[in-house]
Each structure stands twice: as C-alpha cells, then as structure tokens.
Amino acid sequence: MSTLKINLNEVAIKATSSKMSKVFRKSLEKLPLKIQSLVAYKYNRWRTETSSLNFERKYTNVFAVDINGRIHAICTINGNEVFWEWIGDYESYIHWLHLHRYDKKV
Q1: pLDDT at 1
Q2: CB neighbours (10 Å) of residue 82?
Q3: Cα–Cα dist 70/81, whole Å
Q4: Where are the domains of the chain?
Q5: Do 70 and 90 contact (CB within 8 A), yes or no?
Q6: Measuring CA to CA, which residue among 28, 24, 47, 48 is closest to residue 38?
Q7: What is residue 8's predicted lDDT score, i.e. its pLDDT?
C-alpha cells in the first residue's frame, strides 16, 4: 500500500513498484561516478526510509527530486508505482520541465 503525505508541495512516497526508463538509465550512466553512487545511496535509503527523499509535485502526477542541489530527477507516480523518467543537471532539468508539461501544476 502506498503512503502519500502532503506537506505544502512536497510529499513522501512509499511505492510497491519502482522502475527506471531507458532515458533515466542512460542519463544516470553519463553522470560522474560520485554522483551515480550518491543516487544509488539515496534511492536505497528511500526504499527503506520513505521520508529520506522529498518529492516536489510539479504537475498532477509528475514529481521532482533534488539529489544534491545540482542534480535533479523526474518521476511520475501512478498509484503505488514510481517511474523514474529522467535525471540530470539543473539547467537541463528546467528545460525538461518546460518541454514535458503534462497538465497544470497542482
């Protein structure tokens, strides 16, 4: 069962299913190994401690996660499935958000 706890525009998500897109995997592979390790650490910590990542709602089911202030990840959440769409630097993140407007911001 998923847990959705809303605090302003940030949520804690517990998912029973979490998948990565090919774009996410390829983008992650291009990041420095130190960042890849940080992403893996934060992801594994989130799987056991849901409040360790802040999911900021951008659109109805689209969320952003700040990895370290410079690197951001984008995911969609449907029910209790999190689908990791993209990861990259801040400028590319802003560009991604403008290109992929799903619907109005909630």
Answers
A1: 35
A2: 23
A3: 26
A4: 3-99
A5: yes
A6: 28
A7: 35
End-to-end CA distance of the chain: 23
Q: What is the DSSP string of 35-92?
A: HHHHHHHHHHHHHH-GGGS-EEEEETTEEEEESSSSEEEEEEEETTEEEEEEEEEHHH
Give the model's pLDDT for residue 104. 53
pLDDT value for 2: 38
What CA–CA distance (Å, rounded) separates 105 from 58? 6
User: What is the residue whose two structure tokens read 């659109």?
Assistant: 59
| Cα(84)–Cα(77) distance, integer angstroms | 9
The CATH fold of domain 3-99? YaeB-like fold (3.30.2310)
Dihedral, 59, 71, 65, 102 alpha carbons, nearest 10: 20
Q: Nearest Cα to 54, choosing from 17, 88, 12?
A: 12
Q: CA-to-CA distance for 28 and 42, rounded, in angstroms?
A: 14
Tell me how far apart the alpha carbons of residues 14 and 49 are, in angstroms, rounded to a whole number. Answer: 9
